[in-house]
Amino acid sequence: MTRLVENDIAGLERELDVYEEELLKKTGLNLSEVACAGGNITIHDLRKAAQSYRVAVVPITSGEGVIGGFTQFVASIIRKMGFQATVTEETDVAGFYEGVCQENEIIFMADDKKFIALNLRTKKVIDNGYGTGRGFGAALAGMADGLAGREVLVIGFGPVGSSAAEYLLESGAKVAVYDQNELRMKETKKDMKQEPNLKQALKIYDFLIDATPEGEFISPEDLTDQAMIAAPGIPLGLNAQAFEKYKDRVIHDPLQIGVATMLALAVG
Ligand code: 2YJ
């Protein structure tokens, strides 16, 4: 999983309203609606949860340390969904203690390996890869006006791609997978088609999930004219020309959909 850097999220907190307007325009869904679709809960249940849960986000200094603006941005995404959310003053274990003592029952925290949401009331723990995959699957379904019976190519079968693939299967889509790592290809389920050649596959599928950590490996001529792309992978797999051509049909963000869907899953 790619480690975010300060630049990936700089300025995004201020732009959250604009981000959500664009998401709505592309998918017909706002951030909470994408999260609820990915998390399999109703908006009504999300709103009820927003009244009963408080959320703390704990900065974690281990490994490569705190990423400037990361916890603040996570908290602002959660507030955007109608929940009370604070960043703890203390970090690490002291921050976790502070969050729990202040009666927060959902704790978000990330080190270099894992980013989790922990629901202390239900003991549920939600991984960012799982939330991100499902959320981007839901965003693609929104953009496509439903994916039941349609063929979707998932590129990259790590924690995000495999969760997106599962979600898409649940939604009735026909799922195909490409991963350059043969061991990962072996982890695909039998109801998922394996695509051995990426270039050939890109020419066929109109609906794509780019869940790779590779940048700029997709050019405009690789894609069908109708292609729609949900791209949780960082950096973006499309090169600049492909992005320019497809930008109205590309969903790509570093945290928003993943965090929102983690929250929906944590309270669901
Ligand atoms: O608390 C902090 O500021 C840091 N310890 C945050 C670390 C963030 N973690 C990562 O970037 C992970 N690799 C997971 C990111 C998942 C984004 N989809």
Automatic annotation (TrEMBL):
Coiled-coil stretches, from where to where? Answer: 2-29
Q: Does the keyword NAD apply?
A: no
Q: Does the keyword Membrane apply?
A: no
Keywords, A to Z, come to: Coiled coil
Q: Which InterPro entries match?
A: Ado_hCys_hydrolase_NAD-bd, D-isomer_DH_NAD-bd, NAD(P)-bd_dom_sf, PylD_N, Pyrrolys_PylD
Gene3D superfamilies, alphabetically? 3.40.50.12150, NAD(P)-binding Rossmann-like Domain
Residue span, S-adenosyl-L-homocysteine hydrolase NAD binding domain: 128-268
Query: Which Pfam family would be a valid example here?
Result: PylD_N
Identify the domain of life.
Bacteria
The protein's name in its UniProt record: 3-methylornithyl-N6-L-lysine dehydrogenase PylD
What organism is this sequence from?
Dehalobacterium formicoaceticum
